[in-house]
Automatic annotation (TrEMBL):
Transmembrane segments: none annotated. The lineage of its organism: Bacteria, Bacillati, Actinomycetota, Actinomycetes, Micrococcales. GO terms for molecular function: DNA-binding transcription factor activity; transcription cis-regulatory region binding. Residues 15-73 form the HTH tetR-type domain. This is TetR family transcriptional regulator. It holds the Pfam family TetR_N. SUPFAM superfamilies: Homeodomain-like (SSF46689), Tetracyclin repressor-like, C-terminal domain (SSF48498). The keyword Thylakoid does not apply.
Length: 186
């Protein structure tokens, strides 16, 4: 019997499934960078075939998770700026990006050198754009000095994802973030 559902409904279902898999995979990989595809499928309450239909191998899933999270991080900048003061939006963004990068670094060993390079290259533009937008808003608000180079700030933020795991590491990351902000003040 042929499938009588319209193609648009099927595509919408596939997009929802993909988004759900990416969300679950990010959570699973955050907890355990070595999580298997089968464990991710089980956690997402789907069959392995569904997962493999969307992501033919582990590397494809890891690249998609990273791309999805970078896109989400970049998209949330404007919303954050509407909901809070620019400096608080910068702090929140820096913490979220550091968390994502820590996951990415944990996954780095699972990626081929070419895939890791591709992931880094595709992430750079949106990340620099987000940092630039946040720095501009904070400078216009008088919180930070104007003209800070986003690529320099990205290098400084690199310290946030090098802290040890756990609560002590997160407290250290917050202290480092405040040092970075102090260095950028007018």
């Amino acid at each position: 019997m042929a499938n009588s559902r319209p193609a648009e409904v099927q595509r919408a279902d596939a997009l929802r499934n993909r988004a759900h898999i990416l969300e679950v995979a990010y959570q699973a990989l955050t907890e355990n960078p070595n999580a298997s595809l089968n464990s991710i499928a089980k956690r997402a309450s789907i069959g392995p075939g569904t997962l493999y239909r969307h992501f033919p191998n582990r590397e494809a899933l890891l690249l998609a998770v990273n791309s999805s999270e970078i896109d989400s991080l970049a998209e949330k900048v404007e919303r954050s700026l509407e909901e809070q003061e620019p400096l608080d939006a910068f702090r929140e963004w820096a913490r979220r990006s550091a968390a994502l990068i820590r996951v990415k670094h944990g996954l780095g060993e699972a990626l081929s050198a070419a895939a890791h390079q591709s992931m880094t290259e595709t992430s750079y533009g949106p990340v620099i754009s987000a940092i630039n937008r946040l720095l501009t808003a904070a400078a216009e608000n008088g919180d930070l000095r104007p003209g800070a180079d986003p690529s320099d700030v990205l290098l400084l933020l690199g310290a946030l994802w090098r802290v040890p795991a756990g609560d002590a590491g997160l407290r250290q990351a917050d202290r480092i973030l405040e040092l970075i902000i102090d260095a950028l003040r007018p």
